[in-house]
Design goal:
It is a single chain. By secondary structure, this protein is of the alpha+beta class. The protein contains 19 helices and 22 strands. Strands 1, 2, 3, 4, 5, 6, 7, 8 and 9 form a 9-stranded mixed beta sheet that branches. Strands 10-11-14-12-13 form a 5-stranded mixed beta sheet, sandwiched between helices. Strand 8 and strand 9 form a beta hairpin. Helix 2 packs parallel to helix 5 and helix 7 runs parallel beside helix 9. The longest helix has 35 residues. The termini are far apart. The C terminus is likely disordered.
């Protein structure tokens, strides 16, 4: 149980807010849409920490009509007495960086907000913030304006029987590139939080659209796994395991929850959390999970003579077709993250905790569900055989073509002259025509060109055997040079940037999705490390007519209209139908020159959401794909030029 001494004395001040507004990226990562939504996560995480501590079972998030945000909880409320610094405690919490009940060890047993940037940074980046505390039978309120610079005296509004905290804030438009909140983005995050704490009620209101949704899950992460696999074909009900591990030579305990399910698929999905914070880069708890899973299945396979005594199943083959959620709760003394973003758990004892808890319980589960366990083992054996056969077939095919003097797609690779992996770029180009222009226009020192023929294989539908035998897929694996799947080694990657360059039309968009699906399934570390990009070629070439013609490029219809309206002379407009219509010089100037090009970096905000969208877009259900497109894509008619 958490220490109940959460009061004025338990608040520790570490430092002030001096330059948050000057360098917001240091605290929230960016000032774009991602940074904007990060403000919401910080305030919501404070309310979730109250729920984790055993106080409050309902959190309400409201997007107001003016795009301000209100977060309400029924926790203990913010302390409002006099702090030892001589200021009101509420003012300290919301105006001093890293001030709160999570730093002294007295307010919370476990917390995800400890390594976050805190409510004070949200205040610093807001036009205004209003905090209302319901505590000790009283209602207190404070208002902060201009990034927390102007502070109104604390007000006593009256008496109350309720407890909790309500925070309303509006992001400062002079700091953020956009201040419009996305309903679906916030919905995904709070639904995830509801999955992670059994019976926690999360409510989302949008006063702009009058939409409201409520999320509460009695079975927690078991329902999370079921949600992620709802569009797939599971081969058994979700398996759930939980336990507590006492860390040797300490008084600390680590709580472990694991839910998993195998489906009729070849892809692997593991989503992990510590204290409700998603660890997108994994960490020690994921390592412990994989170790326990591999050990339990190998022990079972040996016990029932499904594999030879000297053989071992590889973890990647066992996990093929598995969806899992790993959630641990760790006290402040042991909690270690790698980096401010909390993307990777570093706590060494978390590995032992998950390994020991899961090994014992999964071992019993496999024996009790012998038929299922045998089915998964046989699937893993087949996966290993297919992987080995595919690798052998690729190597043999390459040797045969070499012996016969035949050329394949790899012969079309225009390599770089430099061997520096830290600067080299690989362009995956749609078609031979555009590939030819790209080869002529590129900077040969560090830009490699690989033209692709037609549409790449849909690796969401194909099994690993078929995918790895595909010529385009095999060539990309060979060219990138870092292997694939569990054997993928980012250090061996030949390129710092891998850039998808396709036509700006439906076919080009389809090829982009096919390639991204391939990278997501077989080379996900490339996405995680920020190495995958999409080139953005112009849609229009605008020629200003006159004694001396001037050529401009527009990347959107709006930009084209603006250029035409601002141009006093006559113009000639060409709508590019494909990359092949640009000569080498134009392609370099618009799409390949680092000083003038626009690249879109691919990243994954939510792994489970990415899994779901790939399943919809690239799976077999055409009705679901059509429904998704109708709800998410706007189709417009453009006038031919």
């Amino acid at each position: 149980m958490a220490n109940k001494e959460y009061n004025d004395e338990s608040i520790t001040v570490l430092e002030g807010l001096e330059h948050v507004r000057k360098r917001p990226g240091m605290y929230i990562g960016s000032t774009d849409e991602r940074g904007l939504h990060h403000l919401v996560w910080e305030i919501v995480d404070n309310s979730i920490d109250e729920a984790l501590a055993g106080y409050g079972r309902e959190i309400i998030v409201t997007i107001n009509e003016d795009n301000s945000i209100t977060v309400e909880d029924n926790g203990r409320g913010v302390p409002c007495g006099m702090h030892q610094t001589g200021k009101n405690t509420m003012e300290i919490i919301y105006t001093k960086l890293n001030a709160g009940g999570k730093f002294g060890g007295n307010g919370y047993k476990t917390t995800g907000g400890l390594h976050g940037v805190g409510a004070s940074v949200v205040n610093a980046l807001s036009s205004y913030m209003v905090v209302t505390s319901y505590r000790d039978g009283k209602i207190h309120r404070m208002r902060f304006e201009n990034g927390g610079k102007d502070v109104s005296p604390i007000e006593l509004l009256g008496d109350t029987r309720k407890t909790g905290t309500t925070v309303t804030f509006k992001p400062d438009p002079t700091i953020f590139t956009t201040t419009v909140y996305q309903y679906e983005t916030i919905k995904t995050r709070i639904r995830e939080s509801a999955f992670l704490i059994k019976n926690l009620k999360m409510v989302l209101n949008d006063k702009r659209s009058k939409k409201q949704e409520t999320f509460v899950y009695e079975n927690g992460i078991s329902e999370y796994v079921a949600f992620m696999t709802s569009d797939k074909k599971p081969i058994h009900p979700v398996a759930y395991f939980e336990g507590t591990y006492k860390v040797p030579e300490t008084t600390e305990e680590i709580e472990v929850e694991v839910a998993l399910q195998f489906i009729e698929s070849y892809s692997e999905t593991i989503v992990s959390f510590v204290n409700n914070v998603k660890t997108g880069d994994g960490g020690s708890h994921e390592t412990g999970f994989k170790s326990a899973l591999t050990k339990a299945f190998n022990d079972f396979a040996h016990k029932y003579n499904l594999i030879k005594a000297k053989d071992q199943l590889e973890g990647t083959d066992i996990r093929a077709g598995m969806t899992a959620v790993v959630s641990v709760r760790i006290g402040e003394k042991l909690l270690e993250f790698e980096g401010q973003t909390k993307g990777k758990l570093g706590t060494p004892s978390a590995k032992q905790a998950v390994d020991i808890v899961l090994s014992e319980k999964l071992g019993y589960y496999l024996v009790e569900n012998k038929n299922l366990a045998e089915q998964i083992v046989k699937k893993a054996i087949k996966e290993a055989e297919s992987r080995a056969a595919a690798r052998k077939a690729r190597e043999q095919a390459r040797m045969d073509k070499k012996d016969k003097g035949e050329k394949n797609i790899s012969a079309k690779l225009a390599p770089t002259s430099e061997k520096n992996k830290e600067i080299n770029e690989l362009y995956l180009v749609e078609g031979d025509s555009a590939g030819g222009s790209a080869k002529q226009g590129r900077d040969r020192r560090y830009q490699a060109i690989l033209p692709l023929r037609g549409k790449v294989l849909n690796t969401e539908k194909a099994n690993a055997d078929s995918a790895l035998k595909n010529e385009e897929i095999a060539t990309m694996i060979y060219t990138i040079g870092a292997d694939y799947g569990v054997n993928f080694d980012l250090k061996k990657c030949n390129y710092k940037k891998i850039i998808i360059m396709t036509d700006a039309d439906d076919d080009g968009a389809h090829i982009q999705v096919l390639l991204l699906t391939f990278f997501f399934r077989y080379m996900k570390p490339l996405i995680d490390d920020g190495r995958i990009y999409i080139a953005k070629p112009p849609l229009f070439k605008i020629t200003k007519l006159g004694k001396k013609e001037e050529i401009l490029y527009a990347y959107t219809n709006e930009e084209k209209d603006r250029i035409v309206n601002e141009t006093k002379s006559q113009t000639r407009i060409q709508r590019y139908k494909g990359l092949g219509e640009m000569n080498a010089e134009q392609l370099w100037e618009t799409t390949m020159n680092p000083e003038t090009r626009t690249l879109i970096q691919v990243h994954i905000d939510d792994l489970s959401e990415a899994e779901s969208q790939i399943e919809v877009l690239m799976g077999n259900d055409s009705n679901r794909r059509r429904d998704w497109l109708e709800n998410h894509v706007s189709f417009t008619l453009e006038e031919d030029m």
